[in-house]
Design brief:
This protein has 328 residues and is an alpha/beta fold. Helix content is 42%, strand content 20%. Helix 3 packs antiparallel against helix 10. The radius of gyration is 24 Å and the shape is globular.
């Protein structure tokens, strides 16, 4: 082999060696994120979680070099979407719009994972539950509604966002506190439950005020009470349960979580970007327009503590609901 051929051969082999080495470099040298990030929403499009997720995705475009792409993966009261991210590669490229359900799905027997199998990044917002009926319903007050629900043979059909959802837990807690009997009708989310109410298929729903605000403004629905410590902005004429001597506050938080084992440096990037994104006018204005809360952001440590409290708080109720379902 001539020196020229030998030299050329060495160049080719050197190039191939560098190419092979380069295949191993991105894991160490790339700057996160280098490609789009999937944000799994465990609920159908149009519901509260979906609205919040899409508002965040729009705002995050200013603070992340790659897009945050919302993907709806509904099913099993959020367990399908949550479970997908629990078992996803912990590299920061698949996140989940987590919510209160994460703290009690395990106690309900609907998931094998717990809130500890995901890493919290931030709480985006939180909204209280509300008791909502059609505008032409025979109940002008919460007291009238509950009185009918206590009657023998009562069949007050209450729609929720699915068996074991936060709104189902709210309905069950209200029934336990007041001695009411509700016929729980599960749907695939707050949006389809609300549509069923509008269509006259059920008598009431327990959802957030934000999810029914447009229909209330249009005169089609009315809110009998909110499960909050204080009255809700935009619904100042609606009493809280505590004002009606019912000691109950329940609602839902919505946050962002990542698979357990995600590198701290990746979490740090996401925490910074999300903290900035929730302050963007495009996100705040979107949520305010639809009556979602915009002043309830919390960091990862605060959300972690909240989940730990809720897991203990909701376990007895969740276990009773699970036992009732198994007895049927």
């Amino acid at each position: 082999m001539t020196p020229v051929h030998t030299s050329r051969r060495h160049l080719v082999l050197g190039a191939l060696a560098l190419a092979a080495l380069g295949c191993n470099l991105p894991a160490f040298a790339e700057t996160y994120p280098s490609r789009r990030i999937e944000l799994i929403v465990p609920w159908q499009a149009g519901g509260g979680a979906d609205v919040v997720a899409r508002a965040l995705a729009a705002a995050a475009a200013k603070h992340l070099p790659q897009p945050l792409v919302v993907m709806n993966k509904p099913g099993a009261t959020g367990a399908v979407g949550l479970g997908e991210v629990v078992h996803a590669k912990p590299d920061g490229y698949k996140l989940v719009l987590s919510s209160s359900e994460l703290t009690f799905l395990n106690a309900l027997g609907l998931a094998k994972f717990t809130y500890q199998d995901l890493v919290p990044i931030a709480r985006l917002n939180a909204d209280p539950a509300a008791v909502v009926v059609r505008a032409d319903a025979p109940w002008a007050t919460l007291e009238q509604f509950l009185a009918d629900a206590r009657k023998p043979g009562a069949n007050i059909r209450v729609g929720t966002a699915g068996q074991g959802s936060a709104w189902h837990m709210a309905s069950a807690a209200l029934a336990e506190k007041t001695g009411a009997r509700f016929n729980d009708i599960p749907y695939a989310g707050g949006a389809p439950a609300t549509l069923a109410l509008l269509g006259g298929h059920i008598d009431a729903v327990t959802v957030s005020t934000a999810e029914v605000a447009t229909h209330v403004e249009a005169g089609k629905l009315k809110v009998l009470a909110v499960m909050a410590d204080r009255r809700v902005a935009g619904f100042e004429n609606v009493p809280t349960l505590k004002e009606r001597n019912i000691d109950l506050s329940m609602g839902i938080w919505r946050g962002i979580s990542a698979p357990k084992g995600t590198p701290p440096e990746v979490i740090a990037v996401l925490k910074t970007a999300i903290a900035k994104s929730v302050q963007e006018p495009i996100m705040r204005q979107t949520l305010e327009k639809l009556h979602f809360s915009t002043d309830t952001y919390a960091d990862d440590a605060t959300l972690q503590a909240e989940m730990a409290r809720e897991a203990v708080q909701f376990r007895p109720l969740a276990q009773r609901i699970a036992a009732q379902q198994n007895a049927r």
